[in-house]
Amino acid sequence: MAETLYDWAVAWGKSKIHVEADSHSDEISLQVRELLDAMDLASVLFAPGDVPVYFSKAAQNLGIIRDQKIVGEELLALIRVVRRTKIAQSGRVEVPLGPIGQGTRLLSVNVTPFGDQGLLLGLFRDESEAARIDAVRRDFVANISHELKTPIGALSILSEAVLEASSSPDDVARFARRMQIEAKRLSDLVQEIINLSRLQDADPLLDALVVDVDEMIASAMHQAQFSAETREIELVRGPLINASVDGDKKQLVMAIHNLLENAINYSSNKTKVTINTSVVNGILEISVIDQGIGIEDKDTERIFERFYRVDPARSRETGGTGLGLSIVKHVALNHGGTVSVWSSLGVGSTFNIKLPVRENANKIEEAK
Ligand code: ADP
């Protein structure tokens, strides 16, 4: 698509420049400017001597030109090759984000001779965001591979241990129990990876259903009940709210369940986990409050990143995958909401999910 537009633009522009060259040889025609401004590709016209004579609106923010000069050695080299060979060239160049600092912007660029005045046309597309997303994806895949290797490695070692301990039924039973734990870890991790990738693809608000907040919280509490009982932790539900939100109930329950499991996992036995709800100015706030170990300020932002754990050993002990909070964050964002945390070391943590309340929910309920 871009190629077609590009070819068309070059052909059209060349004819224009040619036609108007006689009467306005020293200026770029208004139509050419309008055309360059209308394209989503950023464009710059360079006169002989590498002087930029026109740059489109989209090009102004790319930092290709500073003080009337072309910025970036790679770009300058590419332009000079085209000037020398009179053959169009394309490639990727990095240009500095500013006069100081190490930051760069990655641009794909196409430079071609333009008209018969010795002009060159440069067409640019900012690839920085795509490159960043690519890097995040590569990072994620590398992290997943690392995370998968741990339980798989443990299973392999344990199976060898079982073989060697075949004469001792007690040892065999002990190793088999450890194998069960590692197999569960593996299946939890795979399930969370599937959950996360589904969340990244889906838009729950497109086929949103009415979700009753009290029911959704009751389901999440029900799912966390077993873990709470095992740890003798009391799950307390604050007053019911009788409100609804638009969205995907499964996803919302999963997010609240994740917060409850964390509140249980990162607290001592026999403590309390409370879940409160309130609606202020059309925004539902769900708070999960624990009396657990708390989180240091420096970690509170990072815990929503995939695979970030404050204490990897503790997370491993509790069977954590490191994906729970990034799932919560995705669910909240996908539903037009936010998630935040307040925490104090040794005192406890409060995680808040805010979601827009379904408008006129009561009227719809009444009409049913
Ligand atoms: P994990 O599977 O390791 O629990 P999460 O993404 O759910 O992964 O959480 C990331 C990290 O945030 C945890 O490893 C833990 O260090 C910290 N964390 C999450 N919830 C709490 C909490 N309620 N109290 C203290 N720390 C928490």
TrEMBL record:
<dbReference type="InterPro" id="IPR003661">
    <property type="entry name" value="HisK_dim/P_dom"/>
</dbReference>
<dbReference type="InterPro" id="IPR004358">
    <property type="entry name" value="Sig_transdc_His_kin-like_C"/>
</dbReference>
<dbReference type="GO" id="GO:0000155">
    <property type="term" value="F:phosphorelay sensor kinase activity"/>
</dbReference>
<dbReference type="GO" id="GO:0016036">
    <property type="term" value="P:cellular response to phosphate starvation"/>
</dbReference>
<feature type="domain" description="Histidine kinase">
    <location>
        <begin position="143"/>
        <end position="359"/>
    </location>
</feature>
<dbReference type="Pfam" id="PF00512">
    <property type="entry name" value="HisKA"/>
</dbReference>
<dbReference type="InterPro" id="IPR036097">
    <property type="entry name" value="HisK_dim/P_sf"/>
</dbReference>
<keyword id="KW-0808">Transferase</keyword>
<keyword id="KW-0597">Phosphoprotein</keyword>
<dbReference type="GO" id="GO:0004721">
    <property type="term" value="F:phosphoprotein phosphatase activity"/>
</dbReference>
<dbReference type="InterPro" id="IPR005467">
    <property type="entry name" value="His_kinase_dom"/>
</dbReference>
<keyword id="KW-0418">Kinase</keyword>
<protein>
    <recommendedName>
        <fullName>histidine kinase</fullName>
        <ecNumber>2.7.13.3</ecNumber>
    </recommendedName>
</protein>
<dbReference type="InterPro" id="IPR050351">
    <property type="entry name" value="BphY/WalK/GraS-like"/>
</dbReference>
<keyword id="KW-0902">Two-component regulatory system</keyword>
<dbReference type="GO" id="GO:0005886">
    <property type="term" value="C:plasma membrane"/>
</dbReference>
<dbReference type="InterPro" id="IPR036890">
    <property type="entry name" value="HATPase_C_sf"/>
</dbReference>
<dbReference type="InterPro" id="IPR003594">
    <property type="entry name" value="HATPase_dom"/>
</dbReference>
<dbReference type="Pfam" id="PF02518">
    <property type="entry name" value="HATPase_c"/>
</dbReference>
